[in-house]
Amino acid sequence: MGTVLYVCRANQCRSAIAAASLRKFIREVAPTSGINVASAGTWASQGASVPASIIELANSIGLPGLSRHRTRRIDYNIIQSADIVIVMELGQREAILSEFPDFKKKVYLLSELAEGSFFDIPDPALPGVNQSGVVLDICRLVEKSTPKIIEMLSEVKN
Q1: How far apart are alpha carbons 10 and 89 in whole angstroms?
Q2: Span between the terminal Cα atoms of the chain, in Å
Q3: In the structure, what pLDDT confidence band is assigned to residue 149 with cuts at 50, 70 and 90?
Q4: Which end of the chain is more exposed for a tag (fewer CB within 10 A), N or C?
Q5: How far is residue 119's CA from residue 115's CA, in Å, rounded to a whole number?
Q6: CATH code of residue 142
Q7: 25-71 residue pLDDT tens
Q8: Helix 52-60 to helix 14-29 angle, to the nearest 10 degrees?
Q9: What's the predicted TM-score (pTM) here?
Q10: What pLDDT sits at residue 158?
Q11: In a domain, 13, yes or no
Q12: Other C-beta atoms lying within 10 Å of the C-beta of residue 30
């Protein structure tokens, strides 16, 4: 059906969690949808792993596979191959559109798709951020945005 690309800053937590969450949700409710899911970071270094605390948290809520995830930085080919690009922060949207202005019509904020409002998702890797709360929020927002994503992908392919 199409490709969804989640983007955060480092591609170590938020975008990886969002991608794993959408993959899980699709396996459960629409296994034959043909939706591909990927992730990248605006300032990611290549090949870093997800922090152990995030992997443990993800495993505890049924999001396996993050231990195999390796970070990658967004580039022209990655963004071009995506039908929808979903970012965690307004600043990430601005960074992507500054570098890749031709893709303006396919870049959205996760909160925008899920709730129709614009707010940033905090980075759970930063000190003082409630990791568990952020991970659960990301999963909730991904699940809530999935019907909109499926609708958008069907419009892109028509």
Answers
A1: 12
A2: 10
A3: very high
A4: C
A5: 10
A6: 3.40.50.2300
A7: 999 888 888 999 999 999 999 999 999 999 999 999 999 889 999 99
A8: 20
A9: 0.95
A10: 55
A11: no
A12: 13
